[in-house]
Amino acid sequence: MAAGGRGLIRALHSSPCPTWKRAQSGANGRLKPEYDAVVIGAGHNGLVAAAYLQRLGVNTAVFERRHVIGGAAVTEEIIPGFKFSRASYLLSLLRPQICTDLELKKHGLKLHLRDPYSFTPMLEEGTLNRLPRSLLLGTDMAANQKEISQFSRKDAQVGKVSGD
């Protein structure tokens, strides 16, 4: 291992994150000095990459600077007493093949889909007689077209053709 690698190991040993140290420690409480691959960042993409590497038999270490892992897949208490999935709107980008390959349902993944699933407030001032506009979308195509028509009747009509 290069001198820079030993410096990284020393830096990681002094990391203030005890959860990480416990997760990466060997039987003697020390970090293993050899890995075939190192993934920097334990966000959802880093964890998926590490899982695929591990499945291939690659000895992989994952390092994260935050106190939680999961990136956009994390639920956190942003407002005291209220937990939020910070980026649940990204769920639509989760490739079904990843769920299958990594057997995520077997490991406890449960998807709770919402309807409506998208709300976009407009950055405009309301008036006494009218609230600021917003766009609310769900699985009801007619309701979606009505929402879209407040911005563009032409675009709302496109949904009728492409939705058939």
From TrEMBL:
Domain of life: Eukaryota
InterPro entries: FAD/NAD-bd_sf
Pfam families, per the entry: NAD_binding_8 (PF13450)
Protein name: Pyridine nucleotide-disulphide oxidoreductase domain 2
Gene3D superfamilies: FAD/NAD(P)-binding domain (3.50.50.60)
Species assigned in the record: Mus musculus (Mouse)
Family of the protein in this entry: Belongs to the carotenoid/retinoid oxidoreductase family.
